[in-house]
Amino acid sequence: MVTAEDVKRLRAETGAGVMDSKRALEESGGDFEAARRLLRERGIAAATKRADRATGQGLVEAYIHGDGRIGALVEVNCETDFVARTDTFRRLARDVAMQVAAMNPRGLTAEDVPGDVEGDRSEHALLEQPFIKDASQTIGELLREAIAQTGENIRVANFARFELGG
To answer: What H or E segment, with its residue span, contains residue 158?
Structure first.
């Protein structure tokens, strides 16, 4: 039997809706880890469905590190200004800006990385890099989670990294 407290706990951990959390817990027999996996899989499927939707809103986020020696700017787009003002979206933009400052990606995807870059091109692709705050997920997965939470298509449109003397 799934309790309201169980649903509340799963919602707090994943950001999923009440009914989605309840269904995931029921289908997993109350196993929180299995319910999280179900929600993640469903979020990825939902993100795929939304991929073609226009993203005309969003924000530009800046991150400055190392006493102003390294900085990053990112443009993250979504469908509505309502979502662009949410804490989830703002946190995502901030995290992507921090990732750009820390990891210096050379392209959004492996196909976007210039051919003269040494090593595996996917290592230099922002969406394929392990997230600096949680290496168990990539930036692409972080983006898909935000899409599942907000119900809107979200994409990183542009990014730039600046370093003194670099």
So the answer is: strand 155-163
Report d(CA 7, CA 23) in Å as an integer.
9
Q: Is 47 exposed, middle or buried (0-12, 13-18, 19+ CB in 10 A)?
A: buried
Measured CA distances, 164 to 70, 72, 97, 99, 161 (Å): 7, 12, 17, 18, 10
147 neighbors 43 (Cβ within 8 angstroms): yes
Alpha-carbon span 161 to 40, nearest angstrom: 30
pLDDT at 46 over 70: no
The model carries a pTM of 0.75
Token couple for 24: 């995931």
Instruction: State how far Cα 117 lies from the chain centre.
Output: 25
CA separation for the pair 153, 41 (Å, rounded): 16
